[in-house]
């Protein structure tokens, strides 16, 4: 903390008071402060120095820009408030406040104009959310606090993604080797307390009845000996109102997948999945072909269904 005399001396100048008034209302770059005060950059920089040394403002470098924001001395809200009230009495206060608003409007205009121009071509710049895996992680936050079963989890990508937020994820697979990967990856990611690898068949797992908010079956149903039984098993695991999310392949004619990928079935028809869901107490709420490859030979089919609530419970909610 600088000596009190230096602190109060830093305030004893009109330009410095105007700078402080501006910085108290927004974090501003040197160029913006120059515009706000309408003074040469050398004058603005000279006066920012004692304000910074006294702790009224601090700097933050972002790329080639240096921004000024309120400093440690103003962390005390009461002091900052008194100061702000007195600074509002400056004869230049209203004019400077308008200039700060104009500087902020220039930021907004710059951003709006850019996106007005790029609309329809945004995909050339980047992917949604900054990257598909970042986007998936962001969306997985919607699973916070949920109990999830991932049937046919493979190496556990989905289970691990959801376990960052979910209360627990039961990761079920028939393959011991796959589950070894899941266990190792969960440990490495520090998620082993929330990921429970479970060896079993997705037609009849050892998991308890009505214990899960969400059951996910990703690209595993076409491997099941009896896919309808896997849907029945998912229905058994779900709490009333819980969701079954199936990602699989739409019915296709690529017979080679049987030999090369050990697929049992050549995808599914929407009506076929819907029929099984309804047969086992699930209400199909969404069927979609997904992604850029919706018309491709191996298109992804998404089927979402809700475990219907018992009538008495439905009226309570
Ligand atoms: C193609 S991988 C999908 C992995 C992951 N779910 C995904 O979406 O990327 C299919 C996984 O389902 C498992 N699987 C296939 N049939 C199964 C069954 N009847 N019971 C349990 N797991 C099964 C396989 O061992 C494999 O790990």
Query: What is the N-to-C order of secondary-structure elements (H for helix, E for strand)?
Result: HHEHHEEHHHHEHEHEEHEHHEEH
Number of strands: 10
**Distinct small molecules:** S-adenosylmethionine
Number of spatially distinct domains: 2
**Which CATH class of the largest domain?**
Alpha Beta
Mean pLDDT reading: 94
Per CATH, the architecture of the largest domain is: 3-Layer(aba) Sandwich
Low-confidence stretches: 312-317
Main pleated-sheet profile: 7 strands, mixed
Would you mind describing this structure in some detail?
The protein has 317 residues and is α/β, with parallel strands linked by helices. It folds into 2 domains: 4-124, Winged helix-like DNA-binding domain superfamily/Winged helix DNA-binding domain (Arc Repressor Mutant, subunit A, Orthogonal Bundle), CATH 1.10.10; 128-316, Rossmann fold (3-Layer(aba) Sandwich), CATH 3.40.50. 46% of the residues lie in helices and 21% in strands. Strands 6-5-4-7-8-10-9 form a 7-stranded mixed beta sheet, with helices on both faces. The protein has a 3-stranded antiparallel beta sheet with strand order 1-3-2. It is elongated, with a radius of gyration of 30 Å. Residues 312-317 have low confidence and may be disordered. Residues 152-154, 157-158, 173-175, 178, 201-202, 218-220, 223-224 line the site of S-adenosylmethionine (SAM).
């Amino acid at each position: 903390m600088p000596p009190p005399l230096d602190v109060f001396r830093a305030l004893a100048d009109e330009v410095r008071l105007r700078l402080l008034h501006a910085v108290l209302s927004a974090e501003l770059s040197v160029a913006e402060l120059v515009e706000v005060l309408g003074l040469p950059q050398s004058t603005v920089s000279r006066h920012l120095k004692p304000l910074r040394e006294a702790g009224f403002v601090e700097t933050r470098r972002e790329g080639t820009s240096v921004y000024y924001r309120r400093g440690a001395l103003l962390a005390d809200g009461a002091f900052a408030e008194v100061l702000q009230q007195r600074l509002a009495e400056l004869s230049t206060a209203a004019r400077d406040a308008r200039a700060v608003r104009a500087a902020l409007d220039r930021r907004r205009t710059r951003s709006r104009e850019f996106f007005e121009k790029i609309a329809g071509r945004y995909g050339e710049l980047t992917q949604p959310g900054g990257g598909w895996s970042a986007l998936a992680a962001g969306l997985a936050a919607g699973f916070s606090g949920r109990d999830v079963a991932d049937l046919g989890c493979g190496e556990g990508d989905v289970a691990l993604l959801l376990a960052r937020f979910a209360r627990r994820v039961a990761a079920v697979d028939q393959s011991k080797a796959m589950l070894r990967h899941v266990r190792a990856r969960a440990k490495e990611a520090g998620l082993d307390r929330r990921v429970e690898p479970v060896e079993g068949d997705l037609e009849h797992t050892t998991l308890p009845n009505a214990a899960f908010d969400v059951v996910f079956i990703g690209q595993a149903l076409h491997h099941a000996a009896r896919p309808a039984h896997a849907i029945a098993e998912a229905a058994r695991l779900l709490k009333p109102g819980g969701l079954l999310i199936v990602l699989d392949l739409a019915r296709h004619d690529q017979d080679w997948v049987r030999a090369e990928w050990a697929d049992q079935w050549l995808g599914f028809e929407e009506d076929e999945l819907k029929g099984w869901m309804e047969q086992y107490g699930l209400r199909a709420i969404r069927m979609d072909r997904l992604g850029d490859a919706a018309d491709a030979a191996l298109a992804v089919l998404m089927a979402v269904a809700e475990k219907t609530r018992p009538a008495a419970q439905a009226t309570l909610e």
